[in-house]
Design brief:
47% of the residues are buried. The protein has helices at residues 12-25, 51-71, 79-85, 87-92, 108-118, 166-170, 178-189, 212-220, 240-248, 265-271, 277-290, 309-322, 339-347, 352-375; strands spanning 2-9, 30-32, 41-46, 74-78, 98-100, 122-124, 148-152, 154-155, 174-175, 195-199, 227-231, 255-257, 295-302, 326-331, 381-389, 397-400, 406-410, 418-426, 430-438, 455-456. Helix content is 35%, strand content 22%. β13, α12 and β14 (326-331) form a beta-alpha-beta unit. By secondary structure, it is an alpha/beta fold. The two termini are 32 Å apart. The protein binds S-adenosyl-L-homocysteine, iron/sulfur cluster (SF4) and FE3-S4 cluster (F3S).
Length: 458
């Protein structure tokens, strides 16, 4: 038995791809290990969404070099930086043995055999452009021990947001056939999973034989599934049908991640986001009419080329107006081959210290809003899907509410149970409470979670 350690950076697509890598390596007798020191194979599943993400990959590689020197471990680089940089990674980092793109995961055994037997360095970054996405979960057992799991429903992105590298690293949109998605969801309930998050870079343009709204409704009907979530949804094609799904299906959780990116129409135009602030707010209004208590979160880019103080004030005002439950805000980072990077000089780069000052102001505002919204839960009893031990105190439990708020609590409900928790205190990022009752428990008992390998949100 050999051991593989996979360090995952980036988004849910990568988290999910890491499981596919583990499955693909099983026929070669590789078992996943949470400790890099005893690994025979180290894989970095990389993200290139921002410059910092790439820097993190390089510093992790530096650390893993020691394991290579001591144990002769093989080192591979997968994910979005691999797809973007290809051969250049081998040139830049002499101790990397192979590079493979997100579409080459199924080829991992073949790649490794070449590395091990022929002692060659391999680069495998060809796209799989078939109309139906053909990389299903090979083994639901890799999800055993989890109450909640991601299911990839599409890959790639056909949008052209001018800041974004994803279309270059993930290629064109390809959807998985809906019956295949539903079969996978059903197989996950067989190992105890009770909540699934359907993931794709742009789920609103899902085309796997039904609309995305229908896919959500069908997923909610799979026996054993108690909760359904999804991410990410682009505002410009958020359909009325999807909004209606929130009206009719209570198993669709009360959280919507709707990245706005900026509160200024001028900036949105240069970003090629294809909506105005008014249009965004209209769609949000419909969503809140369908599910009044829905929690909305967003992504914002600060310091996009040409962003004036006035533009930024509009983003600030929008955050106040919408009162997001949370936001992921980052300073703009130029990415290779993107429209904004090519035109940054023309539009006017924003000085680094200005970007940072704006980000800090926005984060402080969001923190105040999150604290206020979370404080409103104190004294209430909420339903929580138990996911495991609390990350801050192993004696406590951890789970999430319908609104995707993290709850740490005292209690003994098993993983996969829907516990009722009375909230005693709240911070900007989490709620804390005491279990007052255990609602429904999983039909399939879920074993305790093993320590999971490193995931790094870039
Ligand atoms: N598909 C999703 C976004 C995926 S990328 C959507 O369209 O909503 C996740 C987030 O990273 C984006 O929403 C954006 O806010 C941020 N991001 C992407 N490219 C970036 C860049 N070049 N600089 C800074 N942030 C960026
Ligand atoms: Fe990137 Fe835009 Fe596609 Fe999202 S929709 S992945 S931001 S190009
Ligand atoms: Fe995801 Fe990062 Fe790639 S956000 S799609 S892993 S560039």
């Amino acid at each position: 038995m050999k051991r593989v350690y996979i360090h995952t950076f980036g988004c849910q697509m990568n988290v999910n791809d890491t499981l596919r890598m583990t499955e693909a390596l099983q026929p070669l007798s590789y078992q996943a290990t949470p400790t890099v020191e005893n690994a025979d194979l180290i894989i970095l599943n990389t993200c290139s969404i921002r410059e910092k993400a790439e820097d993190k990959m390089l510093s992790a590689l530096g650390r893993y070099r020691q394991v290579k020197l001591q144990r002769g471990a093989i080192i591979g680089v997968g994910g979005c930086v691999a797809q973007q940089e290809k051969q250049k990674i081998l040139e830049r980092v002499p101790y990397v043995d192979f590079v493979f793109g997100p579409d080459a995961i199924a080829k991992l055994p073949e790649i490794l055999q070449r590395v091990e037997a022929d002692r060659v360095r391999v680069v495998e970054t060809a796209w799989v452009d078939s109309e139906t996405y053909v990389f299903p979960r090979a083994d639901p057992n890799t999800s055993r021990g989890k109450a909640t799991e991601f299911v990839t429903v599409m890959k790639g992105c056909d949008n052209v947001c001018s800041f974004c590298v994803v279309p270059h690293t993930r290629g064109r949109e390809v959807s998985r056939a809906f019956d295949e998605v539903l079969r996978e969801v059903a197989s996950l309930t067989g190992v105890g999973v009770r909540e699934v998050t359907l993931v794709g870079q742009n789920v609103n343009s899902y085309r796997g034989g039904c609309s995305f709204a229908q896919l959500l409704l069908r997923t909610a009907q799979v026996p054993g599934i108690e909760r359904v979530r999804f991410t990410t949804s682009h505002p410009h094609d958020l359909s009325d049908e999807l909004v209606d799904a929130f009206r009719v299906e209570p198993k669709i959780m009360g959280h919507f991640h709707l990245p706005v990116q900026s509160g200024s129409n001028d900036v949105l135009k240069r970003m090629r986001r294809d909506y105005t602030v008014v249009e965004y707010l209209e769609r949000l209004g419909k969503l809140r009419a369908a599910r009044p208590d829905i929690a909305v979160t967003t992504d914002i880019i600060v310091g996009f080329p040409g962003e004036t103080e006035e533009d930024f004030e509009k983003t600030f005002a929008l955050t106040e107006q919408v009162r997001y439950a949370g936001q992921f805000s980052f300073v703009y980072s130029p990415r290779p081959k993107t429209g904004a990077a090519l035109r940054e000089a023309e539009w006017g780069p924003v000085p680094h210290e200005v970007k940072i000052a704006r980000l800090e102001r926005l984060n402080a505002l969001q923190k105040r809003i999150s604290v206020e919204l979370n404080a409103a839960f104190v004294g209430q009893t909420v339903e929580v899907l138990v996911e495991g031990a609390s990350k801050t105190d192993a004696a406590r439990r951890f789970g999430r509410t319908s609104h995707n708020r993290t709850v740490n609590f005292d209690g003994d409900a098993p993983i996969g149970a829907l516990a009722h928790v009375r909230i005693g205190s709240a911070s900007a990022s989490a709620l804390s409470g005491i279990q007052v009752a255990v609602g429904s428990v999983p039909a399939v008992p879920i074993p305790e979670l093993a320590a999971s390998p490193e995931v790094c949100v870039a």
